[in-house]
């Protein structure tokens, strides 16, 4: 549970700002509590786990001077992260102070694991991080960064632009390794070197994690920012052809709702993945909404605005666009957090594995138990001799209804016809039409001010 005590500290929040932030937090909590996919399922103690991934834009060195993030923004980020049991973060910067502030706000029990910064022009000195609830998710003492061997180096003998990061965890019965990535973007055209590098990075990390899953007999989950534009792009096939499965429904994860940059993919042991639900959380419906422009206009950075000498914007429309399309992305992000919910309590299945139907047709006496000194070395104890013929048979056990129940296969293979329909829809501008319709719907939902009549 997030701590809200800072809201009563007048060094941090005035009464007016504490009121504003508390109202936003209440609305954010109500949105999180909504049924999926709009909201996020309520976390359970031991029956399921919610795994998230979030590119949390340039957190938080303010090198582009649109910030730094406000204290209220850290509260909103903490609220969203606390809805997950473990969440992979991309674009965490060198200074871990802001992340530690968020962890403090999330309350006791929360912890994080971070990489060193990735150097080089494409690395941007970014870190990969996992934030997790240590009361629910246990770190299994295995952690490492994935580097390319010499034979697999990218053109020009290049490594990954940002080094993938793998950590092993356990929650309940479920042992799993998470590998988070932030794949190189580069140019968008398919014939470009940058696009080829993006595909190569995804192809290698997917094949490497698939090989490890096979070799180690381990559950692997590959997640993060893959910079995948749409479900039928070559970048997506580079991920799935290695045997990684995706949730049944895909969600766009950029703020405009047009691209499928972020993904969570599975390569797991047979019968050890019970998929429950998935979604993307659109925090922009609640915090830093377009309707909040007037509240924030006085504190927007002047260096990025065209202002008159009296401080008012020359073009209010352009100023609102800066607020809603740029400034707020450095307060929260230009990405939305993606999540999946998996069942992790295999207790009944483990016990049912020992139940044999043959003993429901006839019973045998209780097993003889020996002391340690008397116990046979190579064979288990034999059943006792019955005192009289046994009449009662063993009954089938009663099994409690599962608290969370899902499907064993998280996805099915996409048919050629389905893939072609999606490709044609994207190629014909379906994504742009959907975005414009969404924006038109938001405008239509705004209450219109009644015109004053001369009387």
UniProtKB/TrEMBL annotation:
Stretches for region Disordered: 370-411, 434-455
Leader peptide range in chain numbering: none
Residues in Endonuclease/exonuclease/phosphatase domain copies: 52-231
SUPFAM superfamilies, per the entry: DNase I-like (SSF56219)
UniProt cross-references to Pfam families, sorted A to Z: Exo_endo_phos
Domain of life of the organism encoding this protein: Bacteria
Keyword annotations: Endonuclease, Exonuclease, Hydrolase, Nuclease
Sample GO molecular function, one term: exonuclease activity
Biased composition (Basic residues): 443-455
Protein name: Endonuclease/exonuclease/phosphatase family protein
Species in which this protein is naturally found: Hyphomonas hirschiana VP5
């Amino acid at each position: 549970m997030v701590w809200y005590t800072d809201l009563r500290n007048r060094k941090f929040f005035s009464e007016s700002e504490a009121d504003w932030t508390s109202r936003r937090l209440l609305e954010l909590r109500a949105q999180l509590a909504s049924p999926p996919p709009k909201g996020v399922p309520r976390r359970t103690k031991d029956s399921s786990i919610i795994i998230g991934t979030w590119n949390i834009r340039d957190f938080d060195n303010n090198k582009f001077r649109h910030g730094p993030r406000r204290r209220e923004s850290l509260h909103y980020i903490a609220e969203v992260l606390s809805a997950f049991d473990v969440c992979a973060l991309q674009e965490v910067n060198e200074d871990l102070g802001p992340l530690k502030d968020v962890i403090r706000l999330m309350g006791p029990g929360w912890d994080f694991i971070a990489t060193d910064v990735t150097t080089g022009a494409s690395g941007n000195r970014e870190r990969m991080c996992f934030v997790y609830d240590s009361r629910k998710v246990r770190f299994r003492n295995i952690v490492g960064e994935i580097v390319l061997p010499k034979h697999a180096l990218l053109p020009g003998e290049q490594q990954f632009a940002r080094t993938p990061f793998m950590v092993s965890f356990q929650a309940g019965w479920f042992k799993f390794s998470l590998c988070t990535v932030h794949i190189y973007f580069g140019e968008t055209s398919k014939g470009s070197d940058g696009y080829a590098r993006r595909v190569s990075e995804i192809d290698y990390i997917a094949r490497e994690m698939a090989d490890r899953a096979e070799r180690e007999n381990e559950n692997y989950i590959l997640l993060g920012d893959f910079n995948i534009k749409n479900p039928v792009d070559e970048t997506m096939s580079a991920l799935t052809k290695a045997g990684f499965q995706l949730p049944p429904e895909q969600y766009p994860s950029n703020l405009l709702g047009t691209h499928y940059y972020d993904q969570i993919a599975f390569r797991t042991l047979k019968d050890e993945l019970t998929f429950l639900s998935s979604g993307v959380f659109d925090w922009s419906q609640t915090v830093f909404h377009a309707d909040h422009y007037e509240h924030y206009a006085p504190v927007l950075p002047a260096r990025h605005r065209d202002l008159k000498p009296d401080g008012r914007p020359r073009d209010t429309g352009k100023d609102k666009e800066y607020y809603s399309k740029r400034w707020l992305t450095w307060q929260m992000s230009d990405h939305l957090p993606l999540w999946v919910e998996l069942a992790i309590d295999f207790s009944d299945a483990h016990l049912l594995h020992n139940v044999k139907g043959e003993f429901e047709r006839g019973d045998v006496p209780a097993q003889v138990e020996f002391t340690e000194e008397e116990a046979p070395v190579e064979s288990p104890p034999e059943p006792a001799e019955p005192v009289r013929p046994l009449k009662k048979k063993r009954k089938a056990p009663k099994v409690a209804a599962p608290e969370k129940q899902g499907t064993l296969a998280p996805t099915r293979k996409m048919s050629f016809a389905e893939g072609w329909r999606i490709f044609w829809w994207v190629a014909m501008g379906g994504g742009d039409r959907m975005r414009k319709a969404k924006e038109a719907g938001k405008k239509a939902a705004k209450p219109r001010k009644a015109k004053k009549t001369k009387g």
